[in-house]
Amino acid sequence: METNLSCSTEGNNMAARGALVVLEGLDRSGKSSQCSRLVSYLEGQGLSAELWRFPDRTTDVGQMISAYLTNASQLDDHTIHLPFSANHIEWCKAPEIGLLAPDLVAYLDISPDKAAERGGYGDERYENLEFQKKVVEHYKVLHDASWKVVDAWQPIEDVEKQLQEIVLACVTECQKGKSLSSLWLT
């Protein structure tokens, strides 16, 4: 999810700008629900907010990915990597290295077993315990000190409140001119 405020520069000084906020988590951790609620909250605070989803299932490539994920088409697991990469490039218009880093990564933490108890679990190809346990391990590798972890097994309203506080603090910091950073330059 991206929160767009204003972005301008005067010479080499960073001025107020929007914030790029990313919500991550296992399937059925509440990312879609919380993103929608967060956009409504930010707009209610008088801030401009825009929601982006990945994969973007509205593009031709995204529809191919969606068909694969919902088991409507069969592809080799290695083959589907190419459409995911193409969709990511469509989404961000550039390769990942050197892209703007998110100002905030909020990780909605839930165990695969608890996620499996939520409605609709198993509707997509990778919504199974074995795969989601592997995803948890990969998130542990990616996780760094900058991530904010939210217990996604809490009531939805508690998760919402916690995200509102975290994101509003991030937006405020960006409005004050927080410097931009890039992904994976080393």
Which fold name is given in CATH as the topology of one domain?
A: Rossmann fold
Structural class: alpha/beta
Biggest β-sheet description? 4 strands, mixed
Q: How many beta-strand segments?
A: 6
In the CATH classification, which architecture of one domain applies?
Answer: 3-Layer(aba) Sandwich
The CATH superfamily of one domain is known as P-loop containing nucleotide triphosphate hydrolases
Average pLDDT, to the nearest integer? 83
Report the CATH C-level class of one domain. Alpha Beta
Please bin the fraction of helical residues.
40-55%
Shape: globular
Number of helices in the DSSP assignment:
6
| Helix-strand sequence | EEEEHHHEHHEH
Please tell me about this protein's structure:
Residues 23-90 form the Thymidylate kinase-like domain. Pfam families: Thymidylate_kin. This protein has 186 residues and is α/β, with parallel strands linked by helices. The longest helix is centred in the C-terminal third of the chain and has 20 residues, at 156-175. The chain has 6 helices and 6 strands. Strand 2 (9-10) and strand 3 form a beta hairpin. It has a domain at 2-54 and 104-175: P-loop containing nucleotide triphosphate hydrolases (Rossmann fold), CATH 3.40.50.300.
